[in-house]
Amino acid sequence: QRDELVNQESEDKVGENGKCQFSYDTIVAMKVAERELIIDIGGSSIGACFVTHHDEGNSEISNTVRVPFKIGSVDVRGGLQEIALLTLKQALEGLNRTGTIQKTHIVLADPWYQAETKAIVSESEKPLRISMGTALHAIEKQREESGTQKRTGRRMIESLITQLYVNGYPTTLSKTVHGTSLTTHVYESEADESFVVKATNIIRDNFPHAPLSFHTRAFVMFAVLRNLREEDSFVMLDIGAETSEVVIAHRDALTFTHSFPVGTLTLAREIANGGSLADALARLQLYTKSELSEDEMSSFNLKFEVMGKNWFSEYQKASDSAFKNIAVPQIAFLLSDQDSLQWLHRMMQQIAVPLLPTIIPLTTTFFQNMLSLGSNARYDVPLSFASLFSKSQGSTIDLHT
To answer: What's residue 110's pLDDT?
Structure first.
């Protein structure tokens, strides 16, 4: 059975690496100079840019805009939606409207969506013919048995197959194979209906003609990193203003996602201890660069250690369930706003526990060989991820359209 499966896959030139979603080398020829609008709705800022895809060479980003939320020094999670929508208007007003836009991609970060992963297993005592139709039937059967229904006030964002295994081996199922077991990994996300509608209306007011598609940052990062990196297992840590999201890829499948309410501002408030949040954030950066006085460094060490342990205790709750049946990946990619990334990285290095793998901060230099800069552009990590992701649209196995 294994030989038959391997032989069938070796004939398949599309996705022969067994990865189910994307391969930048196998994308069907694209239209020349296809210009798209990228919008990143983050937990503490809104980013936007244009990306122009060429059929040869790097895509080019232009007119990069990143507008932070005006949150102040208090916890405003209750009113964060209105702040985000106002910031979205402001960000789009800063873009140049000349030229045609073929498509608009909106990427939602935590906390603007909720997501779950499923591993649907189908088994047979005798070898059977297994095709993509088999996988889709298994998904439909699972939905019927679980009684899954659309929740009131929620909008489905994604329902995607992230990986398929036949007899434990990865496959694209672009051709029928034979086997006794099929495992289908599915990622699904949803968002608040009213927020999606309001955001859509704001975007339509500014760019009325281009079709829109919503995505989640967890899936965008997973899809891009899986195709850029050699590792088939890794952790993604996306730390926003008030939340942290833990996303795990295992054997090229998106297998786990979890969010907990501790972010950069949450941690900075611990340092501020009722004082100025802006001062606490500034001191965190000075501490990371060892630019505080000796006495201040000594005092800050204690606060920094407590802050790190508080974050890790929440991370550990997530990882305890995630790593029950799989090994801890050796690599974790860390994403946060550029002002916080350095001190977050240091915080995690000081924790130094086995459950936290080697941390790779995602900085702007990560994308310099993959994207070109056009007019009024700069490298912005979430927008760069989304720009690379948008180029590979069309090969996604989308279950809800």
So the answer is: 95
CB 243 within 8 A of CB 43: yes
**Which amino acid is present at 232?**
D
Encode burial over 223-255: b for 16+ CB neighbours within 10 A, e otherwise. bbbbbeeeebbbbbbbbbbbbbbbbbbbebbbb
Sign of CA dihedral 82, 86, 87, 89: positive
Tens of pLDDT, residue by residue over 191-204, are: 999 999 999 999 99
Residue-wise pLDDT for 320-378, tens only, equals 888 887 888 889 999 999 889 999 999 988 876 666 788 999 999 998 889 999 999 99
Residue 17: the pLDDT is: 52
Supply the pLDDT for residue 295. Answer: 87
Tokens standing for residue 379: 């490298």
Tell me how far apart the alpha carbons of residues 115 and 112 are, in angstroms, rounded to a whole number. 10
Which amino acid is residue 329, in one-letter code?
P
| SS3 labels along the chain | CHHHHHHHHHCCCCCCCCCCCCCHHHCCCCCCCEEEEEEEECCCEEEEEEEEECCCCCEEEEEEEEEECCCCCCCCHHHHHHHHHHHHHHHHHCCCCCCCCCEEEEEECCCCCEEEEEEEEEEEEEEEEECHHHHHHHHHHHHHHHCCCCCCCEEEEEEEEEEEEECCEEECCCCCEEEEEEEEEEEEEEEEHHHHHHHHHHHHHHCCCCCEEEEEHHHHHHHHHHHHCCCCCEEEEEECCCCEEEEEEECCEEEEEEEECCCHHHHHHHHHCCCCHHHHHHHHHHHHCCCCCHHHHHHHHHHHHHHHHHHHHHHHHHHHHHCCCCCCCCEEEEECCHHHHHHHHHHHHHHCCCCCCEEEECCHHHHCCCEEECCCCCCCHHHHHHHHHHHCCCCCCECCC
**φ, ψ dihedrals at 332, nearest 5°:** -130, 130
Which residue stretches of the chain have pLDDT < 50?
Answer: 1-16, 21-32, 73-75, 77, 394-395, 401
Indicate the pTM of the whole model: 0.87
- Predicted pLDDT at 56: 81
